[in-house]
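User: Fold this; tokens only.

Assistant: Input:
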Amino acid sequence: MATQKLYAGAKLRETRQRLALTQKDFAAKLGVSLPYLNQMENNNRPVSTTVILALAQEFGFDVTELATGDAERLVTDMREALADAVFADDIPGLSDLRLTASNAPAMARAFLELHRAYRDTHERLASLDEALGREDARPQASPWDEVRDFFHYCDNYIDAVDRAAEHFAGPASGPRRITDLAEARLDALGIKVVDSDDARLRHYDRDARILYLSNHAEPETRRFQLLLQVALLTQEKLIEATLDLARFQSPAARDIAKIGLANYFAGAALMPYTAFLQAAQEHRHDLERLATRFGASIEQVCHRLSTLQRPGAKGVPFFFVRVDQAGTITKRHSATRLQFARFGGACPLWNVHRAFETPGRFLRQLAETPDGVRYISLARDVSKRGGHFGAPVRRFAIALGCEVKHADALVYADDLDLTLSQAFEPIGISCRICERTQCHQRSVPPLERRLQVTPDERGVLPYKVG
């Protein structure tokens, strides 16, 4: 098999600018000529082995970052945006999108921001909410989408917050230890922790300095909420500094992101990076054993596994997603080449949708995306009980997966035949950007394909895809 050439001009340029070096100085340190560096930064030449070694030796650079980054997810996001009916004609080809994502990522993000603003304005008008007459009717991103994209393009890993949480947890780990530590920290602040019969999971009375935790919640949920409150009270400076760097467009987005960073701290304190990574490798990512060891829920463990992207100590790159019963994606992250649809639901052929049919069981799936990449996916339902008779039960399903090349690191792959091509089910991202022409679950035609409608024929679909 031929060695794939590595084009990483945007990442090289970003590294040089972060180091505040001119092209001439950067080229000298890398041991290449100025024209050669210029060609690499503009993706006219692949990054050479000499440059890769020099990056590691001169700057301690994690060279695996050159092969990752935003390019693939930017391409996926742009393809989905271009599936909008407003772009009916002259849609750029895939090669053009890849060129834009590699050479002009800022332009790609600006396009996505513009399209998102258009969608937001369009939805306001469609809902007849008199948006045009209101003072707050500025065409801006939804705060939830803005925060989601912030974590998405950070690879769901926030180094400063992660390390602060690991420092807080200390060398010892375990549910009882971290609970005692959190309660002791709150006690030192003069805050009392009290059980509550309230429907709210957590309520902090600032005047009385009492933290109420619902006794209807599961122990792992109570523990997580306890740590979340510790983050809000003890890590405010760190969280606010991180928010300043993010430069959110609205106060609402900043407020949502603040809770998101506190949640991140809670998960990272409950499952400290080094200890959790070691345990994950030791138990070969057995979710139930990890949940028991760290006193976390299955969903919390899956989410934490998707954040193990610390430079120099990366874990298996996982994707993680949560969907509701309507198929809407409520959480998503991918450190793999698989990217999720920004709008709408996930591919109906994916096993995450079948998890609702088999509550309490793990479902395994070998899947292949249209680009030929193969994955192993694990899905399970995660019901969130109300705590008393008559209370509504919130039902979700989660999926965790990685490329099959990491299957040896997963206990769930032990008895699967990874050499059998027929064992891999064809899945996609969303119908509009899925290139499969014979999919029996297709809901809308694919982008960039001509349709043939024949009145005298009807197959699985009412049209043929050219």
